[in-house]
Automatic annotation (TrEMBL):
<dbReference type="InterPro" id="IPR003661">
    <property type="entry name" value="HisK_dim/P_dom"/>
</dbReference>
<keyword id="KW-0808">Transferase</keyword>
<keyword id="KW-0067">ATP-binding</keyword>
<dbReference type="GO" id="GO:0004721">
    <property type="term" value="F:phosphoprotein phosphatase activity"/>
</dbReference>
<keyword id="KW-0902">Two-component regulatory system</keyword>
<keyword id="KW-1133">Transmembrane helix</keyword>
<dbReference type="GO" id="GO:0000155">
    <property type="term" value="F:phosphorelay sensor kinase activity"/>
</dbReference>
<keyword id="KW-0597">Phosphoprotein</keyword>
<keyword id="KW-0418">Kinase</keyword>
<dbReference type="InterPro" id="IPR004358">
    <property type="entry name" value="Sig_transdc_His_kin-like_C"/>
</dbReference>
<keyword id="KW-0812">Transmembrane</keyword>
<protein>
    <recommendedName>
        <fullName>histidine kinase</fullName>
        <ecNumber>2.7.13.3</ecNumber>
    </recommendedName>
</protein>
<feature type="transmembrane region" description="Helical">
    <location>
        <begin position="35"/>
        <end position="55"/>
    </location>
</feature>
<feature type="transmembrane region" description="Helical">
    <location>
        <begin position="12"/>
        <end position="29"/>
    </location>
</feature>
<dbReference type="InterPro" id="IPR003594">
    <property type="entry name" value="HATPase_dom"/>
</dbReference>
<dbReference type="InterPro" id="IPR005467">
    <property type="entry name" value="His_kinase_dom"/>
</dbReference>
<dbReference type="Pfam" id="PF02518">
    <property type="entry name" value="HATPase_c"/>
</dbReference>
């Protein structure tokens, strides 16, 4: 920091050196002036100048260090001890910071209000959506029933995705880590997608060597919902395989489909928000949110999601669950 201060005050230092050099030069060319006296004066001047620099460094850097530390940014209680310029800087920073803080506070209140209104709207929409499902179940025309069930499911999944998207930033407050039965979670999600899978001729091959994992069941279900929805959406008549195993002391769950696959150039970007595809860029059904939200929900649970895929050969998503000692980071216990 002292080096930076010297660089900032180099004009002072250069001026002082220039004046001392000029004085010595005059004594050198003027025999009437004693060179020894001038050198003695230069020595004393240099000593006083160094002391002056050190004093100014202590005084000025106290102010600038306060600016550097964010927590002390507005601690100008001793403003009367500041120089006029420092006082101007302190006043300007305080004004702009207070203005910014008010603006942020206002934006946060507005966002909280919009979030609450959205949550309220989603829950209100769920009521007629549930009634609509009951009405669809009473339809006798099976072809019409399948088509309307599929459209109902699309609305249901979009609402669910929107609801969880707003909850993810606060999901750590909603976590409940416990021994979770993989089979019940998987079958619950498969049952939700049943009508869609029947329409497309898609089945499920489930082989769970390990059936229990430590995680949050509700958020795990959401992650699986995004991955299974993605697999069904981009697959034709085939089986989606789900199997669990142990790898390097950790439980893994693989979800493999025989769909259209993912181009190698797209693989690094599939978890980015809004990214759909470069190979199928005209696919208007893709929102680019499912995998992004799955990744966002997996991070607080310490679940790693990996993917292997090739165009025309399908995709395999692997969920690697954390070891037991990693839950200390999740629960804080």
């Amino acid at each position: 920091m002292f080096i930076n201060y010297l660089k900032e005050r180099r004009s002072w230092i250069l001026l002082f050196l220039l004046l001392q050099f000029l004085l010595v030069f005059i004594a050198y060319i003027d025999s009437a002036v004693s060179i020894q006296s001038i050198l003695y004066y230069v020595f004393l001047s240099a000593l006083l100048f160094v002391i002056f620099i050190l004093i100014r460094y202590q005084k000025e850097m106290k102010f600038y260090m306060g600016l550097k530390e964010a927590e002390d940014l507005l601690d100008f209680s001793d403003r009367e001890q500041l120089s006029p310029f420092e006082g101007m800087v302190a006043e300007s920073i305080t004004y702009h910071f207070e203005t910014l803080k008010k603006s942020v506070s206002k934006s946060e209140r507005r966002l909280d209000q919009e979030k609450d209104e959205l949550f309220s709207w989603i829950h209100e929409v769920k009521t007629p959506l549930t009634a609509l499902k009951l009405m669809i179940d009473r339809i006798e025309d099976q072809a019409l029933k399948r088509e309307m069930t599929y459209e109902w499911l699309r609305i249901h999944l979009l609402l669910d995705q929107q609801l969880h998207q707003k909850r993810i930033p606060f999901m750590e407050n909603d976590l409940y880590i416990e021994q979770t039965d993989l089979e019940s979670v998987i079958f619950g999600e498969v049952k939700t997608l049943q009508s869609w899978c029947i329409q497309k001729g898609i089945g499920f091959d489930i082989d769970l060597e390990y059936n229990e994992v430590m995680t949050d069941a509700k958020w795990l279900a959401f992650i699986l919902r995004q991955l299974l929805t993605n697999a069904v959406k981009y697959s034709d008549a085939s089986d989606i395989q789900l199997k669990s195993a142990e790898r390097e002391g950790q439980i893994i769950l693989e979800i493999a489909d025989k769909g259209r696959g993912i181009d190698s150039r797209d693989l690094p970007r599939i978890f980015e928000k809004g990214f759909t595809s470069t190979a199928h860029h005209q696919d208007h059904a893709a929102t680019g949110m499912g995998l992004y939200l799955a990744k966002q929900a997996a991070e607080p649970l310490k679940i790693r999601i990996d993917v292997e895929s090739a165009p025309g050969e399908g995709s395999t998503f692997t969920l690697t669950f954390p070891k037991s000692n990693e839950f200390v980071q999740i629960t804080g216990m």
